[in-house]
Amino acid sequence: MYRLAFTLILSFFALSSALFAQFAPEEEPYRIALLGCIREYEPAPALWKYTEINANLALWVGDNIYADTEDDPSVIANGYQTLGNLEAFKAFQSQVPFLATWDDHDYGDNNENKHYALKEESKQLFREFWKLEDKIPADQKGFTTATTK
Q1: Does 55 score more than 50 pLDDT?
Q2: What domain range includes position 125?
């Protein structure tokens, strides 16, 4: 029974390799690292693992920091400073371009909306930290930008 199952599995892999070989890229695979929900004040050992995967791009998909505050912009600034000072973050940033999403915890207090008191301060801190001042104008509502390879 086990021999039959093993033979079937090997046959499947051999067949699927032959079938899907036509879709294999001619060049090295393009690796995209997905990151989010980083609690900047806690150890983040996964960041070191990201430095080992030879990614071509890092997408920070939200909650890149936890800047939960109703009225203190220094909480947001300190969150970015803490993240930026992590050795693993610096190592990874030196290897690969970053694109980041401005999500609720990055924005400020959890689940805030367009009426959030620190919206403009938060937006400016995000632009500065992710080096987007030349791509996203300060007076632009929200964040939209395009990046090409």
Answers
A1: yes
A2: 30-129
CA neighbours within 13 Å on the CB side: how many for 40? Answer: 22
How far apart CA 50 and CA 57 sit, in angstroms, is: 11
Compute the distance between CA of residue 38 and CA of residue 60 in angstroms, rounded to an integer: 9
Q: Domain tally for the chain?
A: 1
Tell me which DSSP letter residue 23 carries: G
Output the CA–CA distances (angstroms, integers) from residue 123 to 28, 93, 104, 131, in the order listed.
Answer: 36, 21, 12, 12
**Of the candidates 109, 74, 88, the residue with the CA atom closest to the CA atom of residue 35:** 88
CA distance 109 to 95: 31
In this predicted model, what pLDDT tens digit does every residue of 83-124 receive, in sequence order?
A: 999 999 999 999 999 999 888 888 888 888 888 899 899 999
Quickly tell me which residue has 């930008």 as its tokens: 145
Give the angle 124-47-37 at the CA atoms, nearest 5°: 55
* Collapsed DSSP state (helix, strand, coil) of residue 141: coil
Cα 39 from Cα 65, distance rounded (Å): 6
Would you say residue 125 lies in a domain? yes
Which burial class, exposed, middle or buried, applies to 61 when counting CB atoms under 10 A from its CB (0-12, 13-18, 19+)?
middle
For residue 80, is it within any domain? yes
